[in-house]
User: What shape does this take?
Amino acid sequence: TPVIAALASHLDQRTAREIAELDQKRDWPGMLGLARALLQREPDRAEWWFLQGYALARQGERAAAIESYQQAVRISPEDEGSWLSLGQSQSELGQTERAIQTYRRALRYRPESAQAYLALADLYQAQGRSDLALPNYRESVRYEPDSAHGWLGLAAGYQRTGQRERRDEALRTLRKLDPAAADQFEKQYPSK
Assistant: This one.
């Protein structure tokens, strides 16, 4: 996965290869065992706390994953992946307000994080808060202009707020990036 590839890029080849193989096999207990062994040797490495959280989350142990991700961001607060994973796990446990706070904190450390803006926007949109979702979708596509997800969110937010011209503009960009998503959007929200 991209998350594991990003993690592996910071590690020695042997460890990176082992983690990638476990991820490819979806051997979450094996990955958890490796993370715990690595934490025994180096308890102050944020990467190992992240890896433990990742393995726990893949096994459905979200609360335990949250604790690991929290430790990772305490050690390395600039690590975007740990913040994003923490927020995702919180959101999946129904801790929406905590997830929102987590993404906001991530943006204090990484103000150019398109993914944090996107996750924040999605949470606001799910709450029916287009007024808060739209600025975050705009920031997301500002930093990652090729994000079909971001443009889809913008189009949906503009649709909900009756901003037809802006909706059409976002939809045109979405069509260039992901024609199937644009078609699906138009089926859901046909032009009048």
About this structure: The mean pLDDT is 93. Residues 91 and 97 are 8 Å apart (CA to CA). The longest helix spans residues 28-41. The chain is about 80% helix and 0% strand.
